[in-house]
Write a structure and sequence with these properties.
This protein has helices at about 5-25, 30-65, 70-95, 95-130, 135-150. The protein is an all-alpha fold and about 150 residues long.
């Protein structure tokens, strides 16, 4: 059976790949493809955050009774990344490559640090604490992320 760690880590990699597509398009001066790829990247990130915040984090908090721990830190980092996503989107719309690059670089560093914490600490804790409902929770996470990306029926 798949784990929360494996599923959400794979979604992290999918988002990373979309950001790389944006960077390649910008490096070639292809603004329209860069804009389209950025929109897919931003949507993927926002849907990932939403799935964690609406499904995973509340269940983990209920199971552990820990409300001011790792999930609080992750929510705060999600907020910071949402702000960076908005700033990068505005810079891209203005075709300001320097402003975009600064925001995107900060976002990438933050994503990398955030993902390490989730993949090595929080997700394994979720796999352990939520083992009894793992199949149901994974199905809900998959549905939420797929539906938000227009992939679900």
């Amino acid at each position: 059976m798949q784990t929360i760690t494996a599923f959400l880590s794979a979604d992290h990699r999918a988002c990373d790949e979309l950001l790389a597509v944006v960077e390649h398009a910008l490096a070639d001066g292809r603004w329209e493809p860069a804009q389209a790829a950025f929109e897919r990247f931003r949507d993927g990130m926002l849907h990932h955050f939403s799935a964690e915040e609406s499904l995973l984090f509340p269940r983990f908090e209920q199971s552990t009774g820990i409300y001011r721990g790792p999930t609080q830190v992750m929510r705060a980092e999600h907020l910071q990344m949402r702000q960076l996503l908005a700033a990068a989107a505005a810079a891209l719309a203005a075709r300001d490559v320097d402003d975009y690059s600064g925001n995107a670089e900060t976002l990438l560093i933050m994503m990398q640090q955030h993902n390490v914490k989730e993949e090595n600490v929080l997700y394994p804790m979720c796999d352990q604490r939520l083992a009894a409902e793992l199949a149901t929770l994974l199905a809900e996470l998959q549905q939420e992320i797929a539906a938000d990306q227009g992939l679900a029926p």
